[in-house]
Each structure stands twice: as structure tokens, then as C-alpha cells.
Amino acid sequence: MENKHLSAPCGLYCGICPKYEDKTCEGCHSDFHFCDHKGCNIYKCCVNEKKFNWCFECEEFPCVEIKNFTKWRSWISHKDCIKNLNRMKEIDIKEWLKEQNDLNK
Q1: Does residue 86 fall inside a structural domain?
Q2: Which residue, among 18, 20, 29, 7, has the nearest Cα to 87 in the 3D structure?
Q3: Cα–Cα distance measured from residue 59 to residue 69, given in angstroms and rounded to the nearest whole number
Q4: Which DSSP category does 104 fall into?
Q5: How far apart are CA 28 and CA 24, in angstroms?
Q6: Burial (CB count within 10 angstroms: exposed 0-12, middle 13-18, buried 19+), residue 66
Q7: pLDDT tens digits, residue range 39-57?
Q8: Is pLDDT above 90 for 2?
Q9: How remote is the C-alpha of 42 from its chain's centroid?
Q10: Do 5 and 14 meet the contact criterion of CB atoms below 8 Å apart?
Q11: Domain count, the chain
Q12: How far is Cα 83 from Cα 1, in angstroms, rounded to an integer?
């Protein structure tokens, strides 16, 4: 899937992340993610342990971990993660990525 790397398991759109913009990260689903996701409990749970690509694929979605993630005050983009994940599930990832690209031009 083209640009899958820009759709993080947690529902963030990596295309607007400063690490993506300054080329220190190629997106959460890329092979060259900064720090190999070592500090991300959501990635560890979703991708490494449960073998999903996105949290909405899990029967526990939305879990406590993702709910807490959306409450981080220092990262305003986190507040839309659950909404984003529901939208991904509704229209599929490819269409969601098109929407995000159009919104963030």
C-alpha cells in the first residue's frame, strides 16, 4: 500500500510530524523509524505483540492505552487518534491517507 508508512498504528498522521518533515523518521510503518519504536507502548502492543497494523483491528479498541494517549496535553495531534482510527476503519487506510494528504497540503 502506497504511503502506509504515514499512518501510525495509533491513528496519528505521520506526514505532519516534525521528525518526518526533517527527515529523521520516515513514518511509523517504515523500516527506518527513529529509535525502532522502543519507547512506544502502543506500537509494542499493536504491532509487536498482537501483530496488527492499526489499533482499530483489535477487539479491545479503544483500550486504556490509546485513551490515555489522546489526553497528552503536550501533543495536540494526539487528541484525534481515536477519531482517526474510526475513520480509517470506516473508509479504509488508503482513502484516509488521501484525506489526510489533502487536509495537510
Answers
A1: yes
A2: 7
A3: 18
A4: T
A5: 12
A6: buried
A7: 788 988 999 899 999 999 9
A8: no
A9: 9
A10: yes
A11: 1
A12: 22
Distance of alpha carbon 85 from alpha carbon 63, whole angstroms: 12
Q: CA 100, CA 104: separation in Å to the nearest integer? A: 6
In a domain, 10, yes or no: yes
Contact 57, 65 (CB under 8 A): no
The answer as to whether 105 is a domain residue is: no
Whole-angstrom Cα distance, residue 105 to residue 101?
Answer: 6
Nearest to 37 by CA among 74, 76, 4, 5: 5
Q: Read off the pTM.
A: 0.85
Q: Does 35 reside within a domain?
A: yes
Range of the domain at 45: 4-100
User: Smallest Cα–Cα separation from 7: which of 36, 64, 47, 45?
Assistant: 47
More confident residue, 5 or 87: 87
